[in-house]
Amino acid sequence: MADSKLVYYPIRFWGLDQLYQAKVKLNVADALSLKEYPGFSGVYSILNHPISNVHLLGDVVSISQKNKFIQYEIDDGTGTIQCYHWRPVEGSDQGMVVPELGNLVSVFGKLSEYNGKRQIRVLNIMMETDPNVEPMHWLEVVQLKRTVYSRAFVLSPGAERFGMGEDSTKEPLRVTVSSILLNILKQHPPFTLTQLRSDMELKERVIREVLSCEDGLKDVDRGLVGEELSTVIGGLAREGLLIRVTEEGVMGPSMEERYEVLVEEKHLCPSIVEFIKQKSPKTVHGVSESWIVDFVNQSHRNIPTSRILTAIDRLLKGTHNTSTPPNHWYRMS
User: Fold this and answer.
1) What digits encode the pLDDT tens for the residues 232-286?
2) How far is CA 195 from CA 178, 237, 267, 315, in A?
3) Which of 83, 86, 36 is nearest to 55 (CA)?
């Protein structure tokens, strides 16, 4: 469960956090122990800082050459982690840095999980030959833990003054209510927000589960949970946690505004594959990651970029696509 003393801000505030999208310098043990940011898949947290990209340093202790990628295992003395470096061209190492066993490397990449195991999708890898690099990395991590990572992300007074802030005393309850509601709605047929607001059976179930959860919530009663539930329902679509469906279940414009809980494999992966299939024959290098993100943003409102990148990661683990230049893909026949 999330730490009830921390405020986990909605995604619209993450750009105000200095660690968001930074290549966060960590030890391997730190990267393995990070918990997912409450309510988001593929995004992790240090306190309440949203973390996606990391910088690790370690010795290469295993290498596995695959047709589409090179799999490394690096060890820094605190633990080991698998790193997947996708080839620019299938079956070719052209343009890649390819270390050997025993080499000290800096790895920059995106944290993710596959089959329950933490891993890194490598964005860049650098050979390190300076003997001072390793102790300096360790010292910098220690310094960052003391001066940056140990301090929670707090919205500036200016942000709150302009009406962007949330009530921090209610935020832990809001996170809990949102998490419980989404878990229930994943098994729910398509719905409208009006239906959710008037569904007394759903309201009673959420209240019951919130009051019985062990999340460290204090001074919470039925009335307060009911108020937060109403607020959460109103924000689900705005926060990109739901996706609109037509009456037939096909994604697209709908006057009835029926929704389902957004699930990458169901709602994003098929449309991304179809997009790549249609566009890649018309390009030399395939479809770029940014092109895919733009396509999804144009097709569906308020989908967080982190959810789109998670869908791309899951596709890359299958056989649908293969990599060409960095962060470009084409559809396999």
Assistant:
1) 887 887 777 888 876 554 444 444 578 888 887 788 888 888 888 887 777 666 6
2) 17, 14, 22, 34
3) 83
Q: Pick from 305, 1, 8: which is nearest to 153 by CA?
A: 8
Helices (H), the chain: 28-33, 133-144, 157-161, 171-185, 193-198, 200-212, 222-236, 269-279, 289-299, 305-316
Q: Which two tokens stand for residue 87?
A: 């080839």
CB 296 within 8 A of CB 253: no
Task: Report if pTM > 0.85.
Answer: no
- What burial class does residue 69 get, using C-beta atoms within 10 Å of its C-beta: 0-12 exposed, 13-18 middle, 19+ buried? buried
235 Cβ partners below 8 Å, 6+ apart? Answer: 10
Rounded CA gap, 40 and 11, in Å?
9
How do the residues of the chain divide into helix, strand and coil, expressed in percent and rounded to 5? 40, 25, 40
Nearest Cα to Cα of residue 170 among 212, 242, 218, 222: 218
Measured distance CA(322)–CA(86) in Å, rounded: 9
Contact 93, 86 (CB under 8 A): no
| CB atoms inside a 10 Å sphere around CB 103 | 18
Q: Which amino acid is at 232?
A: V
Q: Alpha-carbon distance 317 to 12, whole Å? A: 29
What's the pLDDT tens digit per position in 89-132? 776 777 788 899 999 999 999 998 888 899 999 989 999 999 89
